[in-house]
Structures
1.
Amino acid sequence: MASALSYVPETAPSDFGETTKMNLFQSINSAMDVALATDPTAVIFGEDVAFGGVFRCTVGLADKYGKDRVFNTPLCEQGIAGFGIGMAVMGATAIAEIQFADYIYPAFDQIVNEAAKYRYRSGNLFDCGRLTMRAPCGAVGHGALYHSQSPEAFFAHVPGIKVVIPRGPIQAKGLLLACIKDDNPCIFLEPKILYRAAVEHVPVGDFTLPLTSAEVVVEGKDVTMVAWGTQVQVLREVCNMAQEKLGVSCELIDLRTIMPWDSETVIKSVNKTGRLLVAHEAPLTGGFAAEIASTVQGECFLHLEAPVERVCGYDTPFPHIFEPFYMPDKWRCFEAIKKLINY
């Protein structure tokens, strides 16, 4: 799958300062390096992070900052989340790693019933807002059932936490630093296929990107397309295909933050184009595309030229050898564009 992924590098704004070439995992490493250097309370912990982690996102940080600030935990996701909550409550900036998003479920109770509700249940006397939980997510071409899942919709249903998924290295660094500095618990999901496939010139210094705003990546007038993470790269290619083969101008929006999500930007675009396609790797039923579709039909009903199209994973466990058929690839998305235009 990595060889089939078409990644289009982006350019950072000039006011972000000096840049250097980084892939996605290096940009995440750079963000955590900045956090550790600028915040003496910041700590990083998780399974195997001391030697760099299975994807090398924390490589070199333990050597640079010491084993008291970058350290391994037992193989216990519930414990990692609970420890992170405790650290944040006591005033530390806690950066926890769940080795794969597929294994975040044992920590679900700690995240949903403790982290998300800590401030509310104490009447704002206490909080664990300086907790960020990182986890690699999504398809990688050979991950099968337990190393390919996209669990963002589970957490979008939980008031009190923010859910963020970047589309590339520049976005990853700016959004991760924003999560680390945010006063609310954040879940930061990293599309693992992009760790090495996505390469850009990333600002070397400290910068943040907003956790409240979607971004119009490609402007258009006929169809609005919404995605996040790896799927943004898929829909970039679909934009080109639609223009070349159909003469259709597509507007592509990267949601970036799943919760809270920027409905205003999506509604404004759909009122202009009259058509909407939402695509994600997670299964169709109960996926976050359904929330977007529901909001759009309520807010844009008189402007819609066709029913909202959702192109998603199927309602099955994530397959191994059948992964190419499961994925919401460019061809499935292109067919949805044709359906929208011909309705």
2.
Amino acid sequence: MATVGRLFGGGLLVGTTVTSVLIGYLMNTRKDETVVNRMVSVSPATDPQKLRRSEQILKYGVPDRGPELRYYANHVLCYDQAKKTPVWVAEHITKDHIKGTANRKHSHFKQDPDVPVQFSASNGDYWHSGWSRGHMAPAADSKYNQLAMDETFYLSNILPQDIDNNSGFWNRFEIYCRDLTKQFTDVYIISGPLIVPEIDANDKKFVKYQVIGDNNVAVPTHLFKIVAAENNPKNQNEAVAVAAFIVPNKPITSANKLKQFQVPLTDVEQLSGTTFLNKLDKSKTRNLCGVDACELISGEKLELYFTARKLEYAKSEKVLDNIWNEFRAKGITPDEYVIQVYQRKKKEFEQKDHKVSAVLK
């Protein structure tokens, strides 16, 4: 397991803070509602004199950084109104959440209607920036419901991500998390950005990050993901399997293994200023990568995944055939699913052309 010192040259995050929020471990997500047991750290003013004085000090209102939590059909997040990115995004997925008819071709990146415009990123911030729009709660985790999938395209769930990382390593990581539902009944995932300090030539530490667009959207240096997987929450005999990872926001080759980026959960907490899984007795958990191999899918399987998606979105028979021919030219054997998608789309276009020809006659 990697450590903060080994990954980042030592030191903790300085010069920046995030809202400290404690989100309950047990998250029960259904198709129409998300129930979160949460606990927010608050110290009420019990001294009457201090309370009266605070009312005078805050005569014109308490400075407001927005809601602690924002709720959606299949995810919950904490949003940073200054950086215009999420602080963290939490999900609970089962095998039922990742199958269904919801399709990302019906979804569109757009501003979150619940985030004031002055604190929101825009699509224009990302255009020509060199950074892609990276989901923290992936669209494919909500295939069970179109609304849930649409909400993952709100820019409150998006951050600037290296395009190769987004489509490559991080995508394979997301697929791995979905595959965990094959062996666990419930998988809990928390993802988000990190800005890790750098050490200069004079051995001094600095927090440095790029911003993009007119809204100065912060580009994280790293991304984190925390995974907690369990079987039958009512069965207390099997310990929850937990793992935390910190991944650089840059291209990562397929030769790199997921285990290289595993870190103690406390590393993520220290760097983010946030406590995670506070209702879980961590002394009784298992190492996820000890229970499961933490192996990502191969580059060939990822190619099959992307090919199926491209075929699904083809808007004409000509485009469909071009995608198919380009894929076959790579020498990769198509699996049953890719073949099914191609044949179904081919049949749809042929039927459409037949109807058009019949009308013209």
3.
Amino acid sequence: MDKAKKPIRVYLDGCFDCFHFAHANALRQARELGDVLVAGVHSDGDITKHKGRTPVCSEAERYRLIRAIKWVDEVVESASFLPEVELLEKHNCDFCVHGDDKSCNADGTDSYRFLKEAGRYKEFKRTPGISTTDIIKRLLLATDDRSCAAEEGDFSESKSSELIQRPLAEASGCLEISPGINRPSENCLMSKCLAKFASKVERKDGDRAVYIAGDFDLFNEWHLELLEKARSHGDYLIVGVHSDEDVKTYRGDRFPVLTLLERVLTLVAFRCVSEVVAGAPLVVTEELIRRFRVDVVCQEKSENPLQPKPSQDEGNFELVEISVDVENFPIIERFKRNRVVYTKLYGSPDGIS
């Protein structure tokens, strides 16, 4: 009898700071090269040493986020910035894979030179259009007080009424390019990524469908816990993502930092997410409940009067309020603490295009 084929174990490492869809696509591509994906995540200390900046997200948070990605099987914490053959042997990995962009240590040497010399290294095409550096530059612009202060959105009673009446056709589950984004080649690439990211898990008869909505801008550990708690109330989690235009109504003109398509692509990479409604209405409607056959609507337990709240008058569903144990410390607030450092590294907003 032939022995069972040995699974191919692939190793990929990274900082995975300010997690975005290019990180997700790297993990997806790495997983397609084998049967098991081992993801190495660098520590805060190593990122500070080799990148010259403190990571926006802590190592503990980055470990948790990467474990929740649907293509990741194992995580190596505090992974070396200079991986050697011994690391691959320790984790029974056949080879290491990385994007085709250059990766260097603090001394300017190739981070993967030892694995390349040993023939244990492969490459895939890096995903253009977004990077952690790009997000940091967007954050520099979003937190530049000289231009215009980020204004609170006006979610008035009249605005709420207007949004309730908006047809779901204007906020459908079909992805549309957000207005104002004039990057057709990048949008085309992101649309192709979406097709590859899409969940292959079909909703079964009898599955209890849970719906939760938000902007999910600059995804972090708080968002993940919110989604995982929502998922615990059913079998199939549908996540509504508010459009760029709607997010501005309650967060101000400088938001969201990431576009609708970028936010959707980030979400669909997580194991707990079954389906995403892009451009979801701010207020849950009877039409939405009917179209997506929603059994449970979840919302964060919040005293914020600006936060739209679903009403059970809109359909036959169970309404559940969720308390999140993780502190809600938005990425943009963390960024402000080290803004001076990032400005020195990347330049002032005046010089950012």
4.
Amino acid sequence: MSENKQYENLSSFGSLIRVPDPPLSRTPTPSPTSKASKKLIELKSPNKSIDDEDELKEENGVLFWVNKSGFPIDTKTWERMWDHVGKIHPKGLEVESLIRTGAELPEVPIPQVPLSFPLNMSTYERLEMIQNYMKELQYNHTGTQFFEIRKNRPISGLMDSAKEMIRESLPIKCLEAVILGVHLTNGIAGLERFPISFKTFFLGNTHRHVVLGMYCSGKYGAVGMSRRDDLMYKPLTFKSLAELVIDFQDCYRKYWHDVKKVKLGLPISHNPHSYEQIQWKYLTLNCTRLTRMELARELDKHAREVKAMMKSVTSAQYSPRKPPANSSIQVSPRKEPTSIGTTKLTSRLDRSLTVSRASGTPKECQGTEDESKKDATYQIRI
């Protein structure tokens, strides 16, 4: 079977198709060969204004809308969503009319949120419950993202968006699933969360995907949302970060996707009121220039550095100092390491780690890094 026939037998990986409106007759139309040209056609169509440009996002090589009006959804966003559904759905206006004019539509059940867990439940089982909850919400195929996620917002603001997802119980996309996963896993002892982003190429289109990586007790896994079951949930069974990422890479190959880049972020704070920002792309790996062995070596090196950087932070967060049994001194909660102290420690070690990766670890940088680690350990223990 030739490669083209194999492509034809595969179902479309993306759920949306870019269908630009006809351009104005008096306006010259650029050649639709590039992404910039296609986007310009969309913005010059008579039904779209320049004010809508900020609400257009791109994923998997296609444009989709973002609901910025909040809830309840305003009339403009609501009508725009149905107009888009009528264009991209195979049955188009027939499906739109059937749903919008239906008198007795089936009631959609609201899934139960896993906000509390039994004390004897393992972390493996908790992550499985969280992933099942995301599956019950279902993937959003409407072409309109219901919840606006700005990556530069602090963690506290993103947690508010996660609570809104739970309250509305609407379908979500991969980026929304990462924020929801952070909210639902906050407070699980010994669990580190970090974003893993993928950039792939398939039949002329660039696809982007992100999942929430997990690390606990020497094992790696992931939770998230995707159209493909093997591109979201990974149980805590992988012995190394390299093994986890390469498994994603192998799954992409089954759908004829070439993985171009992998981006890894730093561990995310468990404090839901933190003003820190999530580090989405601390390390970027170009998979087209690295062999599998070189990719695994870089991932293992990154995993070791992150563990060393976060060791004192996690031990302080999950193992607070206790006074002696016969002592009359009581440790006040204010004496414990606060989120501000954790932020300063993380940023200080992050800067020293970045310098060592970028400049080859000169002797002066090594001395500064060792002294900062000693100071951090001393500050935490007093």
